[in-house]
Amino acid sequence: MIDWFNVAANSVWILACSLALATFSYASWQASLSGARLRDQLARRAPQTWLNLSAFLFCLGLAAAAGAWWQSLLWLILAVVFAAQLWTIRKGVIQ
Q1: What angle do CA 61, 65, 68 make, to 5 degrees?
Q2: CB 90 within 8 A of CB 52
Q3: CB-based contacts of 17-25 (< 8 A; 24+ apart in sequence)
Q4: What is the pLDDT of residues 51-90, one digit of tens each?
C-alpha cells in the first residue's frame, strides 16, 4: 500500500529544492545579462524572498517526513527561523 502522507511530505521538500535551483538559475542569468556578480544579484529582495520560501518549505517537508518527534521539532524550529526571515524581507526591513 502506498503511504500517501509520506509521498506528500517528500514532494514538499523536493519542490523546495527545485524552487531554490530555479532561483539560483534565474539570478545567474540576470547577473550574466547585467554584468554583475551572482552574489550581488542574490542579495536583492526578490531572490532572498524565494530562497527563504524554499528553505521554509524544505524544513516543513523534512519535518513531516522525519521519523522521530525530536527530528520533527528541530526541523520545525528551523522552519520558524526561515519564516521569520521571510517575514522581515516582505515587510521591508531588509532591502
Answers
A1: 130
A2: no
A3: 17/54, 17/58, 19/50, 19/53, 19/54, 19/57, 20/50, 20/51, 20/54, 20/55, 20/58, 22/50, 23/47, 23/50, 23/51, 23/54
A4: 999 999 999 999 999 989 999 999 999 999 999 999 998 8
35 φ/ψ sector (left φ>0, alpha ψ -120 to 50, else beta)? left
Q: What is the pLDDT of residues 4-54, one digit of tens each?
A: 999 999 999 999 999 999 999 999 999 999 999 999 999 999 999 999 999
Question: And the C-alpha cell for 20?
Answer: 531554490
pTM of the model: 0.89
Cell output for 55: 528553505
By residue count, the chain amounts to 95
